[in-house]
Amino acid sequence: MTARQPVVVLACGYSGAARIQRLLARSPALACTSGTGLLPACAQAAAAWRQVDNRAGPLSSLAVSSIRAMASSMISIILAEVGKPRWCEVCFSPPSVGEAFLELYPQTQFLCLHRSCPDVVRAGLDANPGAGHAAIAAYWAERTESLLRFREAHPDACRQVRYEDLAGRPVQEARETFAFLGLGEPAPVLAGEEADDPLAGVPLPASHLPIPLADRINELQGRLGYPPIF
Q1: Number of domains in the chain
Q2: pLDDT tens string for the chain (230 positions)?
């Protein structure tokens, strides 16, 4: 393990990523940021280099060194500002951006954050009252499928984390997550620091969803160990 081995949390919107960010920020080794846009920028640069090099396979050594020079300079600034050795980013972009970043930094470790579909829909509606159940549920299904594909393609680099486990068994989940990342014992959670989410466990009205979408969600819920939505 290298001192600057990056950590990336791949999450969808309304998945409660603030909770895992607070957990990781308690480590003296991790400089935690969110939504910097660095991973999408690397993915866009990689796509541009493939066009320039006229190649569809792995990036050329020149492309890798060029993109890494850009990314490493930004990461170095982040680390210098907080005086910590490892960068940790919470990324809400599609998991495909992780593919390009992994090609640049093969030792990157990913935490794939999941949350049950009903809770994501409820959180989304709370933040955007005009949004529809089906639109948010479809977004959840698409992101969940792509995140599962990414984890299956890179099992050694990824750890699945469920929001419900972070909330329901915080001590055990913190220890297991820190162990995966090669960090020390996590700092204890202070009383009242991690309040229960009032949205947890609220059912999703399946009648608001097209049957094919509801079936797709049930299949994904099962793969993640969640109960079906109906």
Answers
A1: 1
A2: 344 799 999 999 999 999 999 999 999 999 999 999 999 999 999 999 999 999 888 999 999 999 999 999 999 999 999 999 999 999 999 999 999 999 999 999 999 999 999 999 999 988 888 778 899 999 999 999 999 999 999 999 999 999 999 999 999 999 999 999 999 888 776 545 555 455 555 566 666 789 999 999 999 999 999 999 87
Backbone CA torsion sign across 63, 69, 74, 76: positive
Residue for token digits 């529809």? 132
- Domain at 180, CATH number: 3.40.50.300
Measured at the CA of 60, the angle between CA 159 and CA 64, to 5 degrees, comes to 55
**Cα(19)–Cα(31) distance, integer angstroms:** 15
The DSSP symbol for 46 reads H
Among 154, 206, 228, 176, smallest CA distance to 23 is for 176
Which amino acid is residue 151, in one-letter code? R
DSSP E strand boundaries for the chain: 7-10, 30-34, 86-91, 109-114, 158-162
Residue 154 lies in a domain: yes
Distance, CA of 135 to CA of 141 (rounded, Å) = 10
Rg of the chain on CA atoms, in Å: 18
Domain encompassing residue 179: 7-187+199-223
Best CA proximity match to 110, nearest among 36, 6, 38: 6
Helix axes 117-127, 133-153, angle to 10 degrees: 130
Beta bridge partners of 31: 87
Tokens in use for 108? Answer: 């990157």
